[in-house]
Amino acid sequence: MTQPLQRRTMLALAGALLLSSGCGFRLRGNFTAPFSTLYLQMRENTRFAAQLTRTIEAGSNVRIVSRPEEAEAVFELLDMRRERDVLSINALGRAREYELTLSMQFRVTSPDGFEFIEATTLTTTRDLSYSESEFLSREKEEEILYGDMESDILAQVVRCLEAAKSPES
């Protein structure tokens, strides 16, 4: 790059940063919670728990701790349920389309009993078409859809954590 071109590029970048900082722009996923340490009361060896830990620590001021005694807040997974309901059937009476539902209920409390987030249920659904000629791919597609639904629920959990009430309010 030539010297004048580098200068113009740097000035354009600086201008863009100034404009974006004045409009309330912030990077997606960055938030501040009313607590700095969180214990996840759930099975640790699941994909969801790993994603939740990674997302919280990477996008907030919160550090996940390994023991509840070290935490200012406890994320308690009360229930996580997968359901599959038949939406439509073919002429032979076999299922042709399913509705997949993923529901999760959780709450976030402090060790002294303050509820940062009261018991909350989050739900997401997807439709799954079924063809008998594609029997083997249906199971894989179902797992992919459930993974996508977990990502949606995870984003909702993060928004709930961001909106958690503080003990002072």
Brief summary:
This protein is α/β, with parallel strands linked by helices.
List keywords for this structure.
single chain, 169 residues, alpha/beta, Double Stranded RNA Binding Domain, 5-stranded mixed sheet, 3 helices, 33% strand
Describe this structure in words.
The structure is a single chain. It contains 3 helices and 5 strands; from the N terminus they run H-E-H-E-E-E-E-H. It has one domain: Double Stranded RNA Binding Domain. With 169 residues, it is of the alpha/beta class. Mean pLDDT is 84; it is low at 21-27. The chain has a 5-stranded mixed beta sheet with strand order 2-1-3-4-5, covered by helices on one side. The chain has helices spanning 3-22, 47-59, 135-162, and strands spanning 37-41, 63-65, 73-89, 95-109, 115-129. Helix 2 packs parallel to helix 3 (135-162).
What profile does the largest beta sheet have? 5 strands, mixed
The CATH class turns out to be Alpha Beta
CATH architecture tag: 2-Layer Sandwich
Rg (CA only): 22 Å
Number of domains: 1
Specify the oligomeric state.
single chain
Helix fraction by DSSP (H/I, runs of at least 4): 25-40%
Query: What is the CATH topology classification name?
Result: Double Stranded RNA Binding Domain
Instruction: Let me know the average pLDDT.
Output: 84
Determine the strand fraction and express it as a percent band: 25-35%
Count of runs of 4 or more consecutive helical residues: 3
Coarse structural class? alpha/beta
Poorly predicted tracts of residues: 21-27
Distance between the termini: 54 Å
Which shape, going by the Cα principal axes?
Answer: flat
CATH superfamily: Lipoprotein like domain
Family: Belongs to the LptE lipoprotein family.
Function: Together with LptD, is involved in the assembly of lipopolysaccharide (LPS) at the surface of the outer membrane. Required for the proper assembly of LptD. Binds LPS and may serve as the LPS recognition site at the outer membrane.
Subunit structure: Component of the lipopolysaccharide transport and assembly complex. Interacts with LptD.
GO molecular function: lipopolysaccharide binding
